């Protein structure tokens, strides 16, 4: 697909093959003020603040396109993040659920390899402990030889910089469906009051079915308070096996907040 960067940048930053011109791997990105930057892809890149980068590119819109795009509200940082496919949407949802992320950007940069090729990774994150990581997102069935070679080059570059790197694929259906359901309750408005939270966690000194936990924290029917339980499942203060479909009979236990 023909892709174009977002925003206006000097022509020199849009020319292909700049990595070859400089004789080394380079990084390009746009900061929150709209200014374009370029820097060597070495260990100093950990200080570039790429989690604050704005979207570097967006797909050109055309009739009957097959991919879906939009914005995902990332609950850990309370920001809307651009995604350009449903696989990226699921990847953001999984990262939101599973990682202690304090900074994140999507379509954050362009890598200019020294051999003249370029690549646009999908997600950049910063964890609570300061670890920075880079992700690409693509279903395994769509990783051809060319993509595999690009991902291998990106992995090598990230190792030299000091960034963990991972290619995220599609989630298994039960996990995806469960996360989509729980994500509807990720907003802080669904967080239970402290006394309700303590009641739920105290009750789970031993594993119990979801419906029993909902009854314990409700002054009425379980449906009146189930949103509190779903929120605690999303924040992982309550744990369930999400590889299986959620139901009233799903066994819950105390979890841990990531």
Automatic annotation (TrEMBL):
Molecular function as annotated in GO: endonuclease activity
Name of the protein described by the UniProt record: TnsA-like heteromeric transposase endonuclease subunit
Keyword field contains Hydrolase: yes
Keywords: Endonuclease, Hydrolase, Nuclease
Top-rank taxon: Bacteria
InterPro entries for the chain: TnsA-like
